[in-house]
Amino acid sequence: MADTTKDAPSGISRRRLIGTAGATGIALGAVGAGAGYATASSNSPDQQAALTSLGADEVMFHGKHQPGITTPMQARGHLVAFDLAAGAGRKEAAALLRRWSATAERLMAGEPAGSDDTDVARDAGPSSLTVTFGFGHGFFSRTGLEKQRPAALDPLPDFFSDHLDKARSNGDLWVQIGADDSLVAFHALRALQKDARGAAKVRWQMNGFNRSPGATSHPMTARNLMGQVDGTNNPKPSESDFDRRIFVPGSGSPAWMANGSYAVVRRIRMLLDDWEKLATTAQEDVIGRKKSTGAPLSGGDETTDPDLEKTDANGDLVVPINAHARISRPDQNGGAAMLRRPFSFHDGFDADGVPDAGLLFVCWQADPLRGFVPVQRKLDRGDALSQFIRHEASGLFAVPGGTAKGGYVGQELLED
Amino acid sequence: MADTTKDAPSGISRRRLIGTAGATGIALGAVGAGAGYATASSNSPDQQAALTSLGADEVMFHGKHQPGITTPMQARGHLVAFDLAAGAGRKEAAALLRRWSATAERLMAGEPAGSDDTDVARDAGPSSLTVTFGFGHGFFSRTGLEKQRPAALDPLPDFFSDHLDKARSNGDLWVQIGADDSLVAFHALRALQKDARGAAKVRWQMNGFNRSPGATSHPMTARNLMGQVDGTNNPKPSESDFDRRIFVPGSGSPAWMANGSYAVVRRIRMLLDDWEKLATTAQEDVIGRKKSTGAPLSGGDETTDPDLEKTDANGDLVVPINAHARISRPDQNGGAAMLRRPFSFHDGFDADGVPDAGLLFVCWQADPLRGFVPVQRKLDRGDALSQFIRHEASGLFAVPGGTAKGGYVGQELLED
């Protein structure tokens, strides 16, 4: 695979691996068996059909930034945190990150993880698989690298509305996996878990999902399990201050975090039975936006800035004083901004038929103290939405920049 | 929506709802907002883009058989069982099935569930949503309909290898939901749960998945989480005895089950850590097929019949005596056949990092005593695969035939 670092400045460049091979009638045995897998001589004719776009879409592993940050949201996701095994230190961690990076590169190209591949992704293409690696606060003391620990990794403050399960929070290492095919994502999860054997063990693991490509006509933003358009106010890569807000500068500190980002992860349970009891207009007052379109209650369409001063005939604010859209707006938070890139989750029903469902909130920023923290402080106090959600787990991870061919994620930290 | 019963004999006919509206530049506001949802006048331009094929694919609710049996497997599935509420009887059950059928028809057409729709599926098309309803053994005594209970609903025999959790087994009513978009599937699950309020409550609920459309070049069969090609020997609708094996005849008994089928549901945990320790050749001996292609070890391709008598140079059987493919073959089981239409599942990892994953096995047959039961009896005794799997939950449900416009599923039973 060519090093496309220079061609893919934001890691969002994609190439169509195999394109329309089937449509043009080209017989590609290797395509039929899944790109990169050995061609089976006994393939039946139906196995020769080409991968269509979903399977063939490939995201580059190498680049200025790691994949899975500005790359499109995927239909399926796994979040998993590991703690270093007893006795494992810097050397073992470096070897693990080297193995993980090599596996991620292969899997994202649609190749087997290794000679002991489980074949679960066989026949499928990369399906936009991304793998993203991060380091948690505990990693640095366990590896003797305290001096390299960024101040930005200081534990998040407690919030009034937190109901955090420590067993499902934080961790020494964090991996985010996303793909448009569930088996491709599961295959990657298991391959990375196997790579960790002896060096690190799973601390917690969560599954999520988003819309499937092609299911919706609404490409910019997604809906969450409350039915709300979600992500409207996300910073856009086309905005001049996008990089400054989301990524640590190339000249940033510590040096090993150059072009990296900080991920805040929150398992946010939605109290759907309560939420769904509200009439749509009451839900819209909670959010401050029209449910159907995501447009602010003050008018316009989804992309229109809300008019926060607008009043109705009675003199009441059209966007209520405690509306989520008002309180979470960057211009209400000293310009704080983060790139939200979540997955929905649904882990079944409890004995009373209440769904264990909500949002695996993942947000990205150059500095959590100028991103997640000030916004959540405001939401924690006055957000009308807070009575319908519960933050159940939390993590904060330092996600280094991307690597060039031959390198591995975290190399500058671990070989300093 | 037109009654397409006569045009869709096996319920597998599909129509492309909106096709290539976007490609031809036709501005369809109603498409942009999701078929059937009111057109929002303030839609932003990106909302006007057409649904692509995945979202637009629609399965008919009405037909000779219920959908979700011979219709293609979907990327996402929910299985949910309900028990009738205290005090609910035949009348309440009839009203529930009428509500459920009406909701299923609307949702499968990409329309809102009702005026209190949650909007979770908004902007998306039907995404091949199917909803399938069945009745469990307990339903009939609770509704005074014991005389209508088919003998085929007699409890399944105990199997030696069963480790069944009763709380996650059986149930008065069963609903199978499948869709190619996770939010469309979740939306349907919640809408049907809401319909049940006061009449029935959730007994158990499970989530599953399959390959996404377009992720793989292998259209006939799927892979499971063991990496095996799964479903090779499924009966095909083109086979002359397909209907006889899978569906109760139109003249069958009891009359209300005409054109219906019986579903056996098993939550089959895969012991993946043990399985993945085996070399590929050892895994192939367990199954009796090549892992890469699904071809029998005796040669040929996936669709070739195994030569069960073939021996190698040492005189040993090439397909081992306890190979799963040998023991589960119809011609080894008095012609027993069932249509397997499963979902994979993955409900996270336990504290030791062991995945709670496997197969939500769903199979369809005209008579479980000539389908699942004889095959499972054989597998229970001698299948080499049995040490790598564990049956954790079980259900058996009578799934009536499909309905015509204006009717509802189970009407012939409930209004007899």
Give structural notes:
The structure is a homodimer of 416-residue chains. Chain A is an alpha+beta fold and 416 residues long. Chain A has one domain. Helices cover 20% and strands 20% of the residues of chain A. Chain A has helices at 29-32, 53-56, 90-108, 137-142, 182-195, 242-246, 272-275, 280-287, 324-327, 372-382, 411-414; strands spanning 14-16, 57-59, 76-84, 130-135, 173-179, 200-209, 222-223, 229-230, 261-270, 339-340, 343-349, 355-365, 389-399. In chain A, strands 9, 10, 11, 12 and 13 form a 5-stranded antiparallel beta sheet that branches. Chain A has a 4-stranded antiparallel beta sheet with strand order 4-5-3-6. In chain A, helix 3 runs antiparallel to helix 5 (182-195). Chains A and B meet through helix 2, helix 5, strand 6 and strand 11 of A and helix 2, helix 5, strand 6 and strand 11 of B.
Topology readout:
The structure is a homodimer of 416-residue chains.
Chain A: E1 14-16, H1 29-32, H2 53-56, E2 57-59, E3 76-84, H3 90-108, E4 130-135, H4 137-142, E5 173-179, H5 182-195, E6 200-209, E7 222-223, E8 229-230, H6 242-246, E9 261-270, H7 272-275, H8 280-287, H9 324-327, E10 339-340, E11 343-349, E12 355-365, H10 372-382, E13 389-399, H11 411-414
Antiparallel strand pairs in A: 1-2, 3-5, 3-6, 4-5, 7-8, 9-12, 9-13, 10-12, 11-12
Helix pairs in contact in A: 3-5
